């Protein structure tokens, strides 16, 4: 029985503070939308793929040790691509106003498991700059790896291309507003229950019974103004007769 009353009280509180909850959701979504569209800088991404073409003999083709060596080589290339030896030349070629450490924060290198393909992704506030950095990084790496490791097994598989109407990868206004709606709902519900908890006024006979810890013996019904006037009417008539 107590659980049913508790659920009823929760539903009653939500209905009572429904305007507050809806207002909190609308306010949160509005703020998220304004910030996303007007204040956050759009970030664009460009990607290029390079292929590490390992030459293998027939005897080494299914050698587990050779496969492990190739994977270690791929991991080594991941580190070399974002090293100052490569990024310094990228900065020099593109005349960028940054440092190798600063440029490194814009570049992400990934390789699929057991794959000889490396993905170089670059994020920047300008889409054409992201494309230039991605392609230049791949070209510089392809050239410098010959000197650094005395190998010539890197080829550009898919260069980055500037789209006609590039779309930023972040921020995502719709996602931000959806998250803001959930947060606003949680805040609205929390504030509603907090206000209900802080409201100690006695409104019903049940409130009085819970507050005093005593049973209710009787109730005084509300007397309407019309009933009061009707009750006074006969008395005035009798006085006039007297």
General description of the model:
This protein is an alpha+beta fold and 242 residues long. It is 60% helix and 11% strand. It has nine helices and four strands, in the order ααβαααββαβααα. It has a four-stranded antiparallel beta sheet with strand order 2-3-1-4, with helices on one face. Helix 2 packs antiparallel against helix 7 and helix 4 crosses helix 6. The relative contact order is 0.16.
Q: What characteristics describe this protein?
A:
11% strand; GNVR; 4 strands; disordered N terminus; LPS_length_determ_N; membrane; 60% helix; Bact_polysacc_biosynth/exp
Nutshell version of this structure?
By secondary structure, the protein is an alpha+beta fold. Helices cover 60% and strands 11% of the residues.
Give the helix/strand class: alpha+beta
Q: Give the fraction of residues assigned to helices.
A: 55-70%
Give the averaged pLDDT, no decimals: 83
Number of strands: 4
Give the low-confidence spans: 1-5, 57-62
For the record, give the distance between the C-alpha atoms at the N and C termini, rounded to a whole number. 61 Å
Largest sheet at a glance? 4 strands, antiparallel
Read across the widest sheet, the strand sequence of neighbours is 2-3-1-4
Give me the strand/helix succession.
HHEHHHEEHEHHH
């Amino acid at each position: 029985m107590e659980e049913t009353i508790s659920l009823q009280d929760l539903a009653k509180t939500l209905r009572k503070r429904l305007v507050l909850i809806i207002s909190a959701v609308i306010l949160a979504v509005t703020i998220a939308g304004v910030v996303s569209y007007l204040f956050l800088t759009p970030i664009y991404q460009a990607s290029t793929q390079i292929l590490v073409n390992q030459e293998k003999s027939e005897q080494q083709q299914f050698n587990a040790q050779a496969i492990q060596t190739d994977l270690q080589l791929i991991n080594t290339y991941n580190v070399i691509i974002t090293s100052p030896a490569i990024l310094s030349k990228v900065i020099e070629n593109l005349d960028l106003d940054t440092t190798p450490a600063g440029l490194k924060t814009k570049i992400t290198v990934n390789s699929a498991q057991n794959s000889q393909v490396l993905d170089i992704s670059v994020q920047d506030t300008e889409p054409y700059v992201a494309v230039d950095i991605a392609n230049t990084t791949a070209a510089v790496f392809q050239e410098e790896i010959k000197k650094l490791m005395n190998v010539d097994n890197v080829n550009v598989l898919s260069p980055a291309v500037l789209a006609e109407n590039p779309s930023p990868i972040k921020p995502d206004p719709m996602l931000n507003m959806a998250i803001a709606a959930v947060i606003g709902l949680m805040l609205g519900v929390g504030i509603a229950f907090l206000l209900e908890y802080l409201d100690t006024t006695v409104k019903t006979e049940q409130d009085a019974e819970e507050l005093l810890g005593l049973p209710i013996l009787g109730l005084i019904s509300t007397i309407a103004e019309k009933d009061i006037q009707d009750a006074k009417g006969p008395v005035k008539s009798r006085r006039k007769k007297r």
